[in-house]
Description:
This protein is of the alpha/beta class. Helices cover 41% and strands 17% of the residues.
Amino acid sequence: MTQSVVLQIGQCGNQVGRQFWERALKEHAEYNEDGTFDESLNTFFRNVDTRFTPARDLPLKRGAQIASLRARAVLIDMEEGVVNEVLSGPLADVFDTHQTVTNVSGSGNNWAVGYFTYGQTHKEQISDTVRIAVEQCDCLQSFILLHSMGGGTGSGLGTYVLELLHDEYPSVYRFVTAVYPSKDDDVITSPYNSVLAMHQLQQHADCVIPVENQALQDIVEVVDHQTKGRLKRNSAVTGPDTKKSKPWDRMNSIVANTLLNMTSSSRFAGSLNVDVNEITTNLVPFPGMHFLTCSLSPLYDLADVRVPPRRLDQMFSDAFDPSFQLAKCHPRKGILTACALMVRGNVEVSDIRRNIDRVKSKLHFVKWNQEGWKTGLCAQPPVGQRHALLCMANNTCLHETFSNVRSRFLQLYRKRAFRHHYTTHGMDEDRFTAALASLDHLLSLYSDVEATSDSEPQQLPDIDVL
């Protein structure tokens, strides 16, 4: 099997990453009954002998027992607090100190500080740390980046690292989970940071999963209301079991579970496996239009362990329900160019096809790709659940989401407010206009798809066979 390296950048990226690794270990512990280091574990973990310094990798061979697991991860933050929490917490043994790049002063909510100041200062250290992680892989398939869009380190240094990966490893897929701030975010400069970061995402990422804080908060509130405190421990919105859990831990759990489901086919067997590189191939129809809507179902189960038979059908309805989306958008109001349904658990392919036939009449696909469905089926369900469904789609409904980001940017930009904080840290003011033009281009791509969604595909001339 192939391997992936996770790069978690900034406070948000490292908090989501901590949830991801905790839950990944629980999944593998659930299904790895004999304690062997197999290809499934090898996707995200190394098996090492800690009697040596640095720890030595043990070969992957049939029947090899787990000695000590190390995550294939790089932890980066310009404030060392969260990284230190990870290294001193329950997951301390999963990471080595040489996997971290930290500073103490932070980026001050400024994209330019993260990108120019810390990017250039730590370029060599980041490059060497990533190179070590890459060299420890037998067949590296993808980088998975986790960072926010509103803060300085996540948006600035996060996209600097993305550009660095694009330059040094151009053939390795780059997936980004980007967490967007809510409208009432307490970072006043977050609209600048978001638009400047989006410019980099359009240029250097292969796929981006935009996640909005407001959408995550709404999901948690709805679940609290509907379950009345009867939430199962292993549901997607349950945070850590520790008493020190923070309010955003439950929101981060949703993102972590999304990543686990996205990579399930890379880690476990199934009748319809979908590797992460297939997501790009099947869901990105045009260059630059690689932002995907995401939904996860079920988000919760009640105390009853038995899932009603209708639950499977309900999952497919949930996938296109706005209250299940990780971004504030309405899938049924947009135009889909392609859609992936990744199912986990004991589900028949015929059930998937039946549900696709049932829901597609309520969706709007472009005429030139009416059968644009990619399906995956992984045999292993999430821990504590019978089935799960992850829906990833290229949908023009994100037009409204990104238009809101643009509007918030222009409110500051037209008044020339706060611009000097960016130009004094090595950023040319032309970057503002270039980033805005890049966002406008993305919005025009969505508008073009919506305008031509009902047109017939262009007829190409027949190929002459010599």
